[in-house]
Amino acid sequence: GESLVSGFMCRDPVQMGVGVDGSKTATCSVVCKDHEWKEGMANNADVLLMSRRDPYESVCSRKLMDMWCRLKQEGRAKQAPQAEKDTYHRKCLREYDVEALEAQNQCKELMRMQARIYQGRREAGGVINYDVLLSDYHTSPEVQVSEIAKGMGICREAYEDKALVKLIVTMGTLLHDKPDQDMGVTMMHDVHTDAQRKAKCSKLREMMRGDAVCREWMDGNAAAESNAILREMEKRRQ
User: Fold this and answer.
1) Distances from the Cα of 184 to the Cαs of 35, 177, 179, 181, 213, in angstroms?
2) Among the listed residues 225, 232, 229, 197, the one whose alpha carbon sits nearest the alpha carbon of residue 213
3) What's the pLDDT tens digit per position in 22-37?
4) Is-contact 49 130, C-beta < 8 A?
5) Rounded to an integer, what distance in angstroms lies between the CA atom of residue 47 and that of residue 223?
């Protein structure tokens, strides 16, 4: 397109006039990061790229960001009082079995997010153009950048240009190493270190593996093929 806009929780591009003949934004391009489908996106996004990483690291990140041991509110007529929330939070952090259930539920919520994206795209008749594993990006970033470019429909001359690919990798490394400076570009949260994970999440892997559904997903490197929740959704759709 002639211009580019990026963001989070984006609207349906057709509703914004992207690709619509006669619209002022007809030749614009939209790059959007999201964790859930918004109305129309599954049908009208031209390219869908996914990323995934070790489920343990994803769940640990949620704990480090304090998205952890929150009292569930489903089924309540009104919010629980703060004292009840605080009591549950302390109990969850103190008792192994309670926190283990929290870790397993967090794992399965991430599985549901992945499943809803895959399922929504398939129901719309679309495809996932590429799904990159973070550890593969660490070991072979140039390969992954080229594969992402292919998935986007970038021309072969560009994704086989070693200097251009190296530039993209270097830019990505800079954005990763300074996440607080360009969040408007990356839409990412803080980068968590192995030291932080060791200090706060040393028992999480064991806890997560206590659930068979979560364990399969962990062993499959969070691939869609190892997501039992997605398989169940597919069975219901058929």
Assistant:
1) 16, 15, 10, 8, 35
2) 229
3) 998 898 888 888 999 9
4) yes
5) 19
- Is the pLDDT reported for residue 190 higher than 80? no
Residue 1 clears pLDDT 60, i.e. is over it: no
What is the token pair recorded at 195? 């030291």
Q: Which tokens hold the place of 217? A: 């997903």
Which residue has 């009292």 as its token pair?
A: 71
1: Cβ contacts below 8 Å, ≥ 6 apart: 18, 27, 28, 29
Predicted pLDDT at 10: 83
Provide CB contacts within 8 A for 236, sequence distance 6+: none
Is the CB of residue 77 less than 8 Å from the CB of residue 215? no
Please tell me the distance from the alpha carbon of residue 94 to that of residue 26, in angstroms, as a whole number: 55
pLDDT given at position 116: 97
